[in-house]
Task: structure prediction
Amino acid sequence: MNMPDTPYATASSPGAPPTAAPTAAPAPPLTIRLAIPTDTPAIAAIHLASRQVTMPYLPPQRRTHDEVTRWVREIVLPQCHTVVAARGPELLGYAAVRGELLDQLYLRPDVRRTGIGSLLLAAARRHRPDGLSLHVFQLNADARAFYAHHGFRVVARDDGSGNMENLPQLTLRWTPASVPVPRRGTP
Result:
């Protein structure tokens, strides 16, 4: 019996037809959508994990997952316009806007620097197209760079006496660039 001249044949399966390597199913598309009550535990987990990994200078977390979940359910969702980044049923990040304040923007640590934060920020800007403010710890260099990249500017500084972490913070503001008015006689 002759072996077929193909790299797919093996000694145990002479003449077997070539088979393609198995491929993984494509990942569901990333969506930005309004948060719903069933997202609450995942939002709380993202909040806790992100703060722990990205802000090691913070005092040790005193709140449990259940306490943060209750805060998201009773304060964040009812008082803020909250959107989540989801891939299928899996939540990757969230942003919450209260009035003109971007009150929260957190990502799972494993999806940082993938563009998801920019998508959440874009959703917040669409919700408040006239401008947004936010507070960021002065020590949070990564967040400060992210917001500066997206056009936020420092408008105030404080000593941290007004936040529960007692850490100095900056207030940043984004205002959309005004559209230049064409001069008379120009097309």
In short: The two ends are 80 Å apart (CA to CA). Residues 30-174 form a domain with the Aminopeptidase fold (CATH 3.40.630.30). Strands lie at 30-34, 81-87, 90-98, 101-107, 132-137, 153-158, 169-174.
